[in-house]
Give the backbone structure.
Amino acid sequence: MNIADWDWTGHVSEEDDQNDDGNKPFASQQSGIVFVIDCSPSMFVKSEDDEENHFTKCVRCIQQVCQKKVLSNDKDLQAVVMFGVGQMSSGDNKAIHIYQTLGQLNIQRITDLESVKEDTVKFESDYGHSDNFDMSDVLWTCSNVFANCNKTLGEKKVLLFTNNDDPHKGNASLQRKAIAKATDLKAMGIELELLALRSKSEGKIFNMESFYKDVLSVSGQYDARSYAEPSDKFEALLIRVHKKEHKRRALGRIPFKLNNSIEMSVGIYSLCRRTALPPSVKIHSATNSEVRTQTRVFNATSGEDVMPQDILSYQEYAGKRICLEPHEVTTLKSFDMQGLKLIGFKNRSDAKLYQHVKPSHFLYPDETSVKGSTGLFTAMLSRCAARDMVAVCWYVPRSNSTIELVHLLPQLEERDSQNVQITPPGFHVIFCPFKEDVREISTGDDMPSATPDQVEKCAAVIKKLSFPYNPSMFDNPALQKFYSNLEAMALSKDEPDDITDYSTPVVKKMEKKASAEMEDFMSSIFPDGVASTTAPKRSAGGSAGASKRPKVEAADHDVKSLATSGELKRLTVADLKNILKKERIRTSATKKQDLIAAISSHFGV
C-alpha cells in the first residue's frame, strides 16, 4: 500500500469554506486545467473493431468533462493545447497549437469541441501533422498558458493524452530538456498527469520506461505501482480523466493526538454527499442583470435600524431571559480544542457501526502541517486493518463545534484490473450516538411476528435478488432530467437527450430470476386461496399516512378454512360482502367485525 499515491490537496470545500469560527478559507478555489492532445498520425488511425480513433476519443472526453463542469463549477478555467500539428500558434514553438486559451467554460467552447469531434477529417486537412516538435516546448507552452492568466488559481493541472511512449526516439538531449521543463512545472505548482493510450499497432505496448517515467518522476506524479495501464476504451479513458481532473478538497486539516506527546496532522474529506439542484439566480426582468437581496434588522416598536453589535442572544430559563454576549455564546459552544483525540481501540465486531447518526467523513494524512504524519498514519492504518480493530476517538471538527464520539474504521487501498485506484487507503469517521441519543422503541405485544419458515423463505428471495451494489450504477433521474433539459436549451438542441431511469425495478428480470422463491414466500405469508391483488396507495400529496393493507380475495371453497383459521379479518369489507352474497347468508350488519361474526356463525365457528 502506497498511501502517497492519492495526492489530495488541502483546499477547503466550497460548500464548507465558511467556518463557524470565522476562519478564512484559502485565497482561491478556482482551478485551471490544460488538456494537451497528441495530434500525430498514429492518433488518427482506426482499428477494425473500433469506430473511433484516439484523437476523437480524447476530444470527446474533454467535451464531456466540459459539459459536466459548466453545470457543476463554471468558475474553473480550461485550455486545450495540441502538438504534432502543421499549423502553430504558440510563437516560435513548432508544431504546437493553442486551440483554446485558458478561460472559463461557455457554450462556444463546448460547440467548438463538438465540431472537432464530429469532423476529424476536416481537422486533419486544416491543421495537418508534423513530427518536428519538442516535448520541452510543449511543457513550456503549458506553463506559459498559466503564466498569462491574470487570476490566482488554487490548483493547476496539465493532462497529456498520447499513445507515443517515446516521442524523441531515444534523443538524450531532448529528453533532458523535457525533464528540466517538468522540474520547472513542479516548481511553479503545476501538476503533470499522463493519460496513456494503447497503440493501434499489433504487439506494441506503451513503455513508460522509454521517456515518461523520468519526466513524471521529477514532477512527483509517477509510481509504477499506482499508474494505470494504457487503454483504448472510451469508458475507461473517461473514468481516468474524471479522476485526474477531480478536485479533492479537504473540509479542514486538524491535529490527531495519540497521547500528550505524539501528534500527527490529518485532512478531513467527505466521500459522499447528496447532490442538489443548483440554486436559482434572481435577475431583473428588464435588464436580465443579477439582483441581490439585502436584509435589514429594525426595532419592531420604534422602526429604527438595529446594528449588529446591538443584537444579543438569550436563553429562557425559569421564565427569565438570560442575555448572552457574542463572546459568551462562543465560549459556551466551545468544549475542547479542535482535532481528534484517541481514547482506545475495540474489536470491529464489538463496534455497532450501524448506529451512525450522520454521514461519515474520511481521514487522510496531511504532510504539509506535520512532517512524518504519513508514516505514522500508515502504520496505524495497517495495524488496525491487520487486527480488525477500530479506533475510538473524541472528534471536534472546528474550534466552536461540540464534541463527537467517533469510530475510525480502517480501509485499505483497492485497485482494478487496469491498476486504477477504486478505494483509497484511510479511515472512515463513523459518528456514534451518545447515551442520550439512543431510544428504545416499543412495538407492542399485539404486533404479529414472522415464523421461522417465513423468515427462511424471505431470506431465499433476498439471496436470489442480491447484487453487488455500487452508487455509480444509479444516476439520480431527477438530476439527469433537469440537466438534460438545461443542456438542450443552452446548446439549442431540438429536444433533450433521452435519460434512463436505472432506479426503476426490472420486474420481468426479477420474476425470471426468483419466481419460484417469491411464490414460496407468498404462499407462506398468505394462506391458500388468498392472494395479494393491489399494492398500498400513497396518500395524497406524498405525505406519510397510515399504511394500508393489501386487498385480498378468497375462493368459495376456502371460506370455511379461512373462518376456522381466523384469517377472515385479512379480507376487505367488499370481499366479505361477496362471501355473504354467494353463501346466501342474511345479515343487516355493515361493520367488518359484524360481517366476520355472521360468516363464522354460519359455518359454526
